[in-house]
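User: Sequence in, structure out. Go.
Assistant: Echoing your sequence, followed by the structure tokens.
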Amino acid sequence: MYKNAGKHVISGLVWGLMLLLFAVSCGKGEINVVRAVDRQNMEMVVLRGDRTKLANFYDADFVIVGGGLSGIAATLAACSSGRGTILVEETDSIASCFASPDTSEYFDNRFVETTGSSKRYIAFREKIKQWYEARSEKQPVAFQPYFKTFEDFGTGNFCFNNDAAIDVIYDMIEQHIDRERLTILNRHKIVKATEFGERLASLEVVDLDNRVVSQVTGWMFIDASETGELLSICKTEYTTGRESRGDTGEPHAPDTASHPGAKNYFLAEAGVDAGADNYVIDLLEEKPSDTAAEKITIETGSRRLKAYSQITEQDISAEFQSGPRARFFEDSVGIGYSLITMFGSDSGVEPVIVPVKPFQIPYSALISPLYSNLIAGGRASGMTYVVSMAYNAPSVEWALGESAGEIAAFCAGYNLNAHELMNSAEDFNKFRERLVKDRGIPIYWYDDVSVDDPDFVEAQLKPFGEPEYHGAAQTLHYFWN
């Protein structure tokens, strides 16, 4: 029903030069055997010999990893620049990886369709509603008994099923596919990254179905995956698991740091031809009788970028804020609002709910100090584990991905890298104005100035560069009109 854009094939001469230039790799030596875990089918795909040679070459201005809500938002923002974008998704379909049958996971605040989100996210929600109306079906109802005492989160929740998500997302991106701005690589797993100086140059990906290795090159890379897949294969620093209270000073961090959840599997090689150039090995939960069976540990936790700044509980928690808003960030590129929900290890135990104030998303939390062309969107952004429990709300994930895509698009238009944009007040002012004026993305919190309000641009830009306006009001109202 939907087709991917044609791949951009790099000529042999250009590719030969690239092999010479991009000689520094994040991996270790030549890959003679490629192994990739297929999480969707819980199998290990093994490629050997000629199967490890690059079969296809894809090239675009922007490469986005992860086809969930953040990845879709980043894709729409990047494609709006008119430049080529490649979206790499490990599962068999974009959108389905974030549409869960557990409708309680879809939970947003009451401002998302007025003052609390961007034009694109509001349009996404409206299209979801229209999808159900056109079919005379009822939307799933979010069930969150934990939040019934919080007035900003108790009613009007929003959720959807897989079919609605897939149809609506493709409706929003189809024009970019048809115009060959967007190439979607479903069922592709990243296995290696190549760098050149302070820039990522290319990725090697395994086609899990056709069992070949391909190269994906780009000018700017965005990790919008749920688990920080791109962060895990290059040199940039990241964190996993829960930081300790001593590390972050967060009241709701544990006494000691804990490693991310992981599950052990064993490789079952029964019946595999040792000489085969490609094969799949089942991952077994129980150790087979062969005591030499190899154990594979698969992390279940997310990786979070060690960015220029890490957002902590103190930045957003109501306990630490005297005004109606969370900490003010001069480099804000978006906004969000969701409760911190800390689940314990014991099933059946109600979570600890930490109230927050409506918060901003700082640019410095999305940028890698090591690579000038790596941006983290969604759950891979620079934050602590405690903060990630608030940043997983749909509207916040969208805002993170959308901001990442807009950063890439702006940098490409002005021939800047992410570090240069961060360090140039003049360029960042231009970028801030573009977010507000051209994209309808709020970067400061109000409860009475929507994206369609005539005062939207003035109200959004006024606080920046004028310290006396940084949260001076005792309400979320537009207070200096």
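User: And one key feature?
Assistant: The mean pLDDT is 86.
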